[in-house]
Amino acid sequence: MKRRITFIQGPAAPFDPHQAILSSNSFAVRNLDAAAEDRITITTDQDKLPLELRKVFDQSQELHIRWATEQPFDALAPFASRVSPGLHVHYTPRISNQSSDALCDLLRTMFGAEEGNGVDCMIPKDSFTTPPPLSAQFAASTELQYYTRLPTLQHLVAFIRNIICHDHECDAMAGSLHTADSVDIDYDRASRTLTASVFWSTPPVGGWEEDIKKPASTVDKVEVGILGAEPNVTPDEIKMGGLLGVVGEDKKLKPTMFSFPSRHHPLAESAKYSISFSQPTGLHPEMSISIPHSALDRPPAPLDATCALHTYLTLPSSVFLDQYQVSTTDPLFLKEHNLVSLRAFSGETDLEAPDWAVELWGSTWLFELATPSTTENGDPASNWTSTIPLHLRYLKPSQSGYRSAHVPWPVVFWACVSDDQSKMGLNPFDRTNLGYDGLFGPRTLFYQLHPASEQLVEELSVPVLELEDGQGLFQSRNIEIGTSIVIVLGFLWILTKLIRVVWATGFEANEVRGPDHEKKE
Amino acid sequence: MAPYRIFTIPRVFVGAILLRVVFLVYGGWQDANSAVKYTDIDYMVFTDASRYVAKGEPPYARDTYRYTPLLAWMLLPTAWDGPKPWSTLAFAFGKVLFAAADVVAGWLVLQLLRRVYRLSTAKALRYVAAVWLWNPMVANISTRGSAEGLLGVLVAALLWATLTRKAILAGAILGLAVHFKIYPFIYGASIIWWWDAQRDGAPPAGQPDLFTRAMEFVTHSRVRVTLSALATFVALNGIMYLQYGMPFLHHTFFHHLTRIDHRHNFSPYSTLLYLTSAGQTGYHFEALAFLPQLLLSVVALPLVLAKKNLATTMLAQTFAFVTFNKVCTSQYFLWYLILLPFYLPSSSLMGRPKLGILAAILWVVGQALWLWQGFNLEFLGLSSFVPGLFLASLFFFAVNIWILGIIIQDGGLNGDPIAMARKVHWED
């Protein structure tokens, strides 16, 4: 088992050498103001794993779980990448097209199975979607994809405490997940490794207070580091400087400075976007993505790269896009919505099915957004807005007449593509399998805009059939009885009319006296 | 100097064509200048399907293409990918075809009204123009690219072939119409019952025993219509099945039998269908919805009315079929519109203007109430399923039932206008 704990301090955060002390058998930090990543790597054929996990890994080629909180957080270098809030699962079964129910069983116990706020899949074949074929050119994409809203990790904490932990230290570590901003779990059959990374953008109140002991076994290793971003020399690289050490091996922390290429780069704090819906939303809500004009400058990518603004939507099955409407090349439509084009989509695209008839978890959509031409550069404080027309599926009846559809904020980023098709250099903090990265070439650089809100999930009110229970007039029984009575009465009314006709004139043609008639006689 | 008359054949038809040309040109302008398109979304489906066909793929490669491949084949010119202004014109080919079908349908109705119903040309033109040729709704639907107008010409042609005693042709049109849109099969029942030996000039039957009557039922014309209809229907489906296999059967026919239809529409069943498809169990009244619908439109109405007045029977059948259907949208109203010019001139709705106006007002109020609730739901996001849409659809159903009752009374108790016309003609 390997563990790596990295504290990342912003340029303004204070640091005193006494705040981080490495001794022969432990590492201690005291009220340290920093973001932190805790990464644990397990070799699956050496370390013992609980049965539930082993069963799943035996059937998996690759499994990548990404979770992000619904609250906004600073994604600073080198942890600049973002995904929409919620639980994302990217999965390739060991034998293509064969997936058992073990993965869904595990996901349900790990993350909870509450309706609307938890895992609802039964078998991947039915619920998981297939990312667009475009991504096949990029090695780092999986065969199947799943998403669900997941506001908290309380089930994961309980799962770890019950299944994995044997001591208080482990329980405490599991508890720290409650305040995490993002969690990654990766299993890769090729390297037989399981990696779990947890990221906190801010320290607990009063700063980090950690005592990290030297590992009990000599095979295990614990690395620690306190780093800060330095001004980078080349635009596609990130440069970090600070202190590094191995607990139990090094006598003290060693100063260090290193740089590495990075896929994801943060933009300036002012580069924000916000999501809203024009009211009332009705059954066809329109999502607006607003970005201040000042945040629309080309990112500081290498000059030979071509940069374009994109958004990647992760939509639960209750909300959908009409692929024929949004894949249009009609310039008037695209101009009205400030879109350039739909680049890729996957998942449930049925235009008619109600939500209860949809088995797939939902759909994903990658759009290239238009940016203002240089001539229409307006007031830098004003907003540039792109809009995306959504539609709501019918949801089940409820007592109030309304149900909620939760739409996670999409991610918005610049993707800068260069002609260079070689692989990206090694990055100790690299993060892939985010859904959208697989839709671009391997050397694409992503510059992330920051979501500006206190809550990164929009709640849409969906009108549904209002069902009164008990004594109400419009309970489901009465609706059926009412419909039946009206239709039967209507039917009988028509029958009596017909009977009166038969009574008066029979079934044959009505007699019309005239020469025609006489001739026949 | 003769008084200026609007209702002359050239004026009515030039007007009808001009109206459609204006709609087509305006539609082209709106499509080119507004993000809100004039062209119907269904037209995009048809033309996408044609494009697949042009590439040698099945039309069903396009999602929601739920029609006969004939339609995609007919619109093949729209898939032509030539230089700019010409390809835009080629794209409009289908709309021009649908609009032309409208005008031809109007022509057929006019011919029948003049020659078979013996209405004066001016009177016949007034009804055809008011109901069909100059009706902006009809012109709008076809120029937006909805294929419903094709049904209009097929039904008009079916009635024309029948009333002019062209049995093989009538059967072929019936087979084609059913292949196109299923519902015209109801006309088969009334046409066959109507076409007894007397229609072909045999002397009126006396009161023979049941066996003789059963034997007499099998007439040459009836056999011809039936075989021709079956042969056309089977041949068309056979060709399409050989060409496209199961997807053809699934999308053209089975889909319409298995769809859930849970979305709000004018049908009195829509609230109940939403409930039951969402898993609220009751006694599944909706499972029997086909019973009143088919009993009336296929059995009772043809049996009682067809020999008395064929066109009115077909109108009543369509009205009953649409009113009792599990799903009903405004395009369905076009189905009975084409038959109105035959019924209205001798109807009590025209004979007693107060009754006619009341029927029109109630029908419009029923629509308006429903549309108001639908707007609240669709655009304001208000939960108007109950009582709003539920009661509105039941009220609309009741209005339709009342009007259907009037149509039945008129068709059943009045003399057949065709026979009356012949009598008047003979007396002249």
From TrEMBL, chain A:
Gene Ontology CC terms, in alphabetical order: endoplasmic reticulum membrane; glycosylphosphatidylinositol-mannosyltransferase I complex
Organism: Penicillium argentinense
Superkingdom classification of source: Eukaryota
Pathway: Glycolipid biosynthesis; glycosylphosphatidylinositol-anchor biosynthesis
Transferase as UniProt keyword: no
Family: Belongs to the PIGX family.
Membrane topology: Single-pass membrane protein; Single-pass type III membrane protein
Role played: Required for proper folding and/or the stability of a subset of proteins in the endoplasmic reticulum. Component of glycosylphosphatidylinositol-mannosyltransferase 1 which transfers the first of the 4 mannoses in the GPI-anchor precursors during GPI-anchor biosynthesis. Probably acts by stabilizing the mannosyltransferase GPI14.
InterPro entries: Pbn1 (IPR042322), PIG-X/PBN1 (IPR013233)
Matching SMART domains: PIG-X
Subcellular localization(s) per the UniProt record: Endoplasmic reticulum membrane
MF terms (GO), sorted A to Z: mannosyltransferase activity
Keywords: Endoplasmic reticulum, Glycoprotein, GPI-anchor biosynthesis, Membrane, Transmembrane, Transmembrane helix
Pfam families with a match to the protein in the record: PIG-X (PF08320)
GO terms under biological process: GPI anchor biosynthetic process
Official protein name in the record: Protein PBN1
Source organism phylogeny: Eukaryota, Fungi, Dikarya, Ascomycota, Pezizomycotina
Transmembrane segments: 481-503
TrEMBL record, chain B:
Superkingdom of this protein's organism: Eukaryota
This protein's pathway: Glycolipid biosynthesis; glycosylphosphatidylinositol-anchor biosynthesis
Localization per Swiss-Prot or TrEMBL: Endoplasmic reticulum membrane
Single Gene Ontology MF annotation: alpha-1,4-mannosyltransferase activity
Record membrane topology: Multi-pass membrane protein
UniProt GO BP: GPI anchor biosynthetic process
Annotated keywords: Endoplasmic reticulum, Glycosyltransferase, GPI-anchor biosynthesis, Membrane, Transferase, Transmembrane, Transmembrane helix
Residues annotated as transmembrane: 12-29, 89-112, 147-163, 170-195, 225-244, 287-306, 318-343, 355-373, 385-408
GO terms for cellular component: endoplasmic reticulum membrane; glycosylphosphatidylinositol-mannosyltransferase I complex
The family this protein is said to belong to: Belongs to the PIGM family.
PANTHER family xref list: GPI MANNOSYLTRANSFERASE 1 (PTHR12886:SF0), PIG-M MANNOSYLTRANSFERASE (PTHR12886)
Function: Mannosyltransferase involved in glycosylphosphatidylinositol-anchor biosynthesis. Transfers the first alpha-1,4-mannose to GlcN-acyl-PI during GPI precursor assembly. Required for cell wall integrity.
Name used for this protein in its record: GPI mannosyltransferase 1
